[in-house]
Structure formats: C-alpha cells, structure tokens
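hey m, so remember when u said the tokens were messed up on ur end? i reran from scratch. heres the input so u can diff it against urs
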Amino acid sequence: MLYERVQGGAKKMNLDDALQNVTRLFLDTAPIIYYVEHNPQFFASSELIFDRIENGQVTAVTSPITLAECLIFPYRASDTILAKAFTNRIVHGVNTLFMPVDEVVADKAARFRAQYNLALADALQIAVAIAASCDVFVTNDLQLKRVTDLRVLVLSEIDV
C-alpha cells in the first residue's frame, strides 16, 4: 500500500513503496539541506533516502542550481566547513551524478515555467531531472506536485 493512515487522518507515504522500481532520483535542495544540517523535523526522512543512495540502491542526480541554493546560508555565515560539506555531497557524493544545465535543459525549463508557472530555479531543477532520466523528483515543496511530467516525492509526506 503506497499510503497509510496516521494520526488525525493525514496520509503518509511508505518510502519503500514510493521508491519501488526507482533507480534514479533527483535531489532538490531541501532534502540535501535537511540531511547535511541534521534538520530535527526532516532528517529522518532524508536519511532514509541518503541511505539508499549510499548503499547503491538508487543513483542520485543533482545540479548547479542545487549547489548554488545550498551554499547561500554557509556563505552568509562565513561557514567554509559547511560549504565544503554541501559541495562534497552534491558534486562528489557517492552514487551521485552532478548534471550540467545546457541549452536543452534551458529550453525545457522555459517550457515548464510557462506551462506550470514555476519559479525559474524550480523549472530548471525539473528540467535537469527529466533530462537525466530520473524516475522521481525528491523535494519538500508541495507546489511542485502540480508538475505531471515527473513523479514528485515530498518529504513531508513520507512515513518515517
């Protein structure tokens, strides 16, 4: 069963079921921040995903947009150690592909921005995920669920 009931009638997704037959997933910015910074609310769900990546069960895809967004806070805080942790995870992580933004991705992003009224960064992320043949897009942005070209997995909907 993909969904199961929890307290208050809210539905949560079983991660094992959600990732069944997934070989490649795209990591949006939030899951990486939650994992690297040990976010108290979302670390457990992001850790489940990173465990699968590190064990070779899935390949992760990231982009320059992910890297740029993750580096904003460390640079504002002059935290070079945290900036290095993000760079290592996003660019050099085990079973992780760092995909460029090229003219094909830019064209797809413009189409997604027009079709779904997405912010440019979100449209670029979705376009990279599709260009990299990802099975699922992992985020914590519920608004991205309106994209129908790719399955979107939202961390707040994961049962831990």
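this time it looks ok to me. The chain is about 50% helix and 20% strand. if urs says something different then somethings off w ur setup not the seq
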